[in-house]
Automatic annotation (TrEMBL):
Organism in which the protein naturally occurs: Streptomyces viridosporus (strain ATCC 14672 / DSM 40746 / JCM 4963 / KCTC 9882 / NRRL B-12104 / FH 1290)
Alphabetized GO MF terms: L-isoleucine transmembrane transporter activity; L-leucine transmembrane transporter activity; L-phenylalanine transmembrane transporter activity; L-valine transmembrane transporter activity
The UniProt record lists the keyword tRNA processing: no
Protein name, entry field: Branched chain amino acid transport permease
GO cellular-component term (any): plasma membrane
Domain of life: Bacteria
Amino acid sequence: MNELPQQLVNGLLLGSMYGLVAIGYTMVYGIVQLINFAHGEIFMVGAFGAITVHLYLLPDGTSIWVALPLMLLGAVIVSVLVAIGAERFAYRPLRGAPRLAPLITAIGLSLALQQAVWAFYPEAKSKLAFPQIEGGPFSIGGATIQTGDIFLLIAAPISMAFLAYFVMRTRTGRGMQATAQDPDTAKLMGVNTDRIIVIAFALGAVFAAVGGVASGLKYGQIDFKMGFILGLKAFTAAVLGGIGNIYGAMIGGLVLGIVETLATAYIADIPGLHQFGSQSWAEVWAFILLILVLLFRPQGLLGERVADRA
């Protein structure tokens, strides 16, 4: 029990990262009812966009405090460009197609992005070092917070507050709500639904890019496969919170992160079950939770917010 505060903090940090990526899943699904399984790779290319700025555009010895905003900007630009390109050339031509077609396209795009990054960064086949913030760690309330985690602690709530304001208070946000509710009626009312869909992809990519930078700062390394499993977990978080519900995506991510962390930490202490608390099982708990949610509450914790367009 002495470790509980630390494990809760670890779970909240991990869950915040899941939530940032889950927002992209739930926004796109809420508007076009598409599961963009390449969204984990948008997270990954954001991290590589940041490291590209650090390695090739900044002078050697640049302070991390100067480099970090520029790296974040590079991550956002790369992720947004990839996401908009995917929407325009991979998903938009398939809008009227059976749902299986864009799903297969998304999986193919995911693999293509992985291989493209590997081709540009052959060293990413193993692990590529990510610049770190110096200082720390810091102790708060019996829990230790690493310096790299501070970026995530700040970025996650700011991102969520910005998204809530954008969706609820801006004209474009209201257009997104109208398109999610009934795209045909929204178009008749003067809403440019194509533009709204592009904005949804772009916003999701921004949050994924922030998550990619946060992951590099947290773990100190990145690789070209880092988005695959995390993307699946973020999708689990979106389903857990209620697919199409942007607040549910963040809450689902937090719940998932806490469950995964606590399960890995404490199941290892139960006699006869210690093997299920190993690190290899940490990847499994998210999907066990997904199965339970689909069985007992398929609409998610906060309820699914997707209109029936049948």
